Amino acid sequence: MSTFAAIPSGRALRTGAEHKDPGSKRIVVAYGFWIFLLSDIVMFSALFATYSVLVRATAGGPTGAELFNQTNVAIETGCLLLSSFSCGLMSLAIDAKNRASTYLGAAFTFALGAAFLAFEINEFASMIGHGATPQRSALLSAYFTLVGCHGVHVTVGLLWLLVMMAQVAAKGFRANVLRRLACFSLFWHALDIIWVAIFSIVYLIGVYV
Amino acid sequence: MTMDDDRPELAPGDEAAPSVIGEETFSGLRAYVIGLVLAVILTATSFWAANTSLLWAPGVTTGLAVLAVAQMGVHLVFFLHIQPQRQHDVARPTDGFAVAALMMLTGEQGRYLKWYPRFVSAEVDPCVTKHDLIRERPASAPCPR
Asked: Is B115 on the interface with A (CB under 8 A)?
């Protein structure tokens, strides 16, 4: 709790008795979810480091410049960015307790996320079809692990979004549903931040080097 | 004491509690639109920089890393609402989290840059081959040159 004590303003100066109340459940849940997101980022950092070290280890196979289609990556990036944006609009609709707008925002978020995934699966399939499988070289192992891990996260996020919309339909904007929706929103925006690192490091810098 | 004291506590990533819903929705919408516009500009610049021949080639890698860091910052501020002056005290450590997250992701880019001269030298220096990177040749082996 030294972090709080170090901030010399307002509520940060809690007394011992108040320490027993760590804040509302909504705050504790969001706080815990941020810690999860950070642990996820730690894992991605390890995968990024692996990729950076192995980027030239092609074992005579195709290089990044030969493998990656920039147009495809640009479309994927656009899909995910717009999906993040519509997720933000969905959050506003949730704040306003507007069910129809929430469904609309969720539908756009889901469709754009699914489009991203479709492009990515198509890209993977095309690479594997040309013999650029994860077994081909250390570069490809690192590439499929890093980008595939992000793709798995997006897939899980899409399933989560479906579940949340079912919960909104069945339970309405209850406190626990609102907390889960807030966590989903954090998760989805965090995935877009990871993707910024992926398209920069893997697809742009990785091709340029 | 700050003027925040009357506000309700905010969870990390929360926006200010809506008192007048229309007003808050508008300001929230504005943040997302600004974030989207900035993100599109930064992304487009990145893709352009990586594919143009107009720029000084050795500087492009650094430029791409800087653009990526800037875009992550844009996402954190406009999409995840990490804004120190708007956060209540309980949320402030998350700003530290956000900074830590940025450092972890961009630290890898820094590592990349550190490796960059070595990768380049692998093309021209017979003593530095790609096998060095997978440790097939002992680092202490004498250079045949």
From this structure: yes
**Could you write out the three-class secondary structure of A75-132?**
HHHHHHHHHHHHHHHHHHHHHCCCHHHHHHHHHHHHHHHHHHHHHHHHHHHHHHHCCC
Are the beta carbons of B63 and A187 closer than 8 angstroms? no
B65 touches chain A (CB under 8 A): yes
Residues with Cβ within 8 Å of residue B141, at least 6 apart in sequence: none
CB contact under 8 A, A196 and B75: yes
| Alpha carbon B78 to its chain's center | 14
User: CA–CA separation, A165 vs B75, rounded Å?
Assistant: 24
Q: What is the pTM of this model?
A: 0.76
- Of A5-9, A16-20, A150-154, B96-100, the range with the highest mean pLDDT is A150-154
Res. A6 pLDDT band, cuts 50 70 90:
very low
Instruction: Tell me the ipTM for this assembly.
Output: 0.84
Tokens of A22: 């760590």
In chain B, residues with a C-beta closer than 8 Å to the C-beta of A81 are: 36, 39-40, 43
A 10 A CB-CB count for A204 gives: 26
From A31's Cα to the closest Cα of chain B, the distance in A is 6
**A178 CB within 8 Å of a chain B CB:** no
